[in-house]
């Protein structure tokens, strides 16, 4: 990371955190939760044909200074910068998403953190299905997080599988391997996700933000609020009211008009295949 690019005080203010920054397991949990509740998952720069830069200065400018959100390569890219700045032993891993039932390519970035010899998986870029806290790298042990259960399993040639307990069964979220990830690997994944006509992020409007009692998500025109296990759906209209909903529910303020967004090509996508059930 270029010296002086990451501003710790500005980052902590952005995620509304004011506690200790000693690199402990508690701090790792606090930072993950704080960022999840403050910085939304969203892809609107792609839909404005602006592209996605992973340069540290650009990430800090967009997500911290301009208070926008991003998707996994941006959100976990910023999170990795923060962890390293606060003294954590942390590195990126790449994962295959399983939400459709078929593993994807390695198109999801997560973070491996080692604290006093114990390894943790941390993630702030998986939308509403995102784990609410770091997960110890221990297999077949359910971890309870904000009323949810998650676990890691050994998955043969797929490496390690993250699952969540959903509808009385374990749903596979993503799998990852422990191999070293180089910056060009991340650039390859980011290029596909932000430019391919088969990528979700070039064909759908998505946003998600964790809340203490649930989450709020957007898929194209469908807004879903989950509060204490209950779901509330709302269909958003076009034009300025759509942009107002982005601002009011996700804190996303676009310096663009509704007409600048790419037209919807597949408005009927299934939310469960984007955000989990």
Give the gist of this structure.
By secondary structure, this protein is an alpha+beta fold. It is 29% helix and 28% strand. The chain has 9 helices and 13 strands.
Q: pLDDT under 50 segments (min length 5)?
A: none
Average predicted local confidence, pLDDT: 94
Q: Report the count of strand segments.
A: 13
Tally of alpha and pi helices: 9
Strand content: 25-35%
Q: H/E series, N to C?
A: HHEHHHEEEEEEEEHHEEEEHH
Percent helix among the residues? 25-40%
Q: Helix/strand-derived class?
A: alpha+beta
Walk me through this protein's architecture.
Helix 4 packs across helix 5 (72-85). The strands form two sheets. Strands 5-4-3-2-9-8-7-6 form an eight-stranded antiparallel sheet. The protein has a five-stranded antiparallel sheet with strand order 1-10-11-12-13. It has a domain at 200-275. It has helices at 8-14, 25-38, 44-47, 56-65, 72-85, 183-195, 200-203, 240-250, 272-275, and strands at 41-42, 89-97, 106-115, 118-122, 135-136, 143-145, 148-154, 160-166, 169-176, 206-211, 214-219, 222-227, 230-235. The N and C termini lie far apart (37 Å). It is built from nine helices and 13 strands. The protein is globular, with a radius of gyration of 18 Å.
List the main descriptive attributes of the protein structure presented here.
eight-stranded antiparallel beta sheet, globular, 29% helix, alpha+beta, 277 residues
Write the layout of secondary structure elements.
Blueprint (H helix, E strand, L loop, with lengths): L7 H7 L10 H14 L2 E2 L1 H4 L8 H10 L6 H14 L3 E9 L8 E10 L2 E5 L12 E2 L6 E3 L2 E7 L5 E7 L2 E8 L6 H13 L4 H4 L2 E6 L2 E6 L2 E6 L2 E6 L4 H11 L21 H4 L2
Antiparallel strand pairs: 1-10, 2-3, 2-9, 3-4, 4-5, 6-7, 7-8, 8-9, 10-11, 11-12, 12-13
């Amino acid at each position: 990371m270029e010296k002086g690019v990451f501003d710790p005080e500005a980052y902590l203010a952005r995620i509304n955190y004011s506690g200790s920054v000693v690199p402990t397991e508690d701090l790792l949990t606090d930072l993950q939760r704080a960022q999840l509740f403050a910085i939304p998952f969203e892809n609107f720069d792609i839909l404005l044909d602006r592209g996605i830069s992973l340069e540290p200065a650009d990430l800090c400018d967009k997500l911290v200074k301009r208070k926008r959100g991003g998707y996994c390569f941006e959100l976990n890219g910023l999170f990795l910068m923060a962890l390293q700045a606060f003294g954590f032993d942390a590195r990126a891993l790449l994962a295959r998403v399983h939400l459709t039932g078929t593993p994807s390519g390695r198109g999801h970035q997560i973070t491996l953190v080692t604290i006093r010899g114990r390894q943790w998986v941390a993630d702030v870029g998986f939308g509403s299905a995102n784990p609410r806290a770091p997960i110890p790298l221990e297999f077949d042990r359910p971890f309870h997080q904000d009323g949810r259960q998650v676990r890691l399993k050994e998955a043969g040639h797929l490496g390690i599988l993250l699952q969540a307990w959903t509808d009385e069964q374990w749903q596979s979220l993503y799998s990852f391997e422990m191999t070293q990830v180089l910056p060009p690997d991340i650039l390859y994944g980011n290029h596909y996700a932000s430019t391919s006509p088969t990528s979700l992020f070039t064909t759908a409007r998505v946003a998600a933000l964790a809340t203490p009692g649930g989450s709020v998500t957007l898929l194209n025109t469908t807004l879903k609020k989950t509060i204490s296990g209950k779901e509330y759906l709302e269909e958003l209209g076009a034009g300025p009211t759509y942009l107002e909903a982005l601002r009011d529910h996700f804190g996303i303020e676009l310096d663009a008009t509704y007409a600048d967004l790419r037209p919807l090509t597949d408005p009927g996508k299934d939310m469960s295949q984007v955000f989990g059930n």
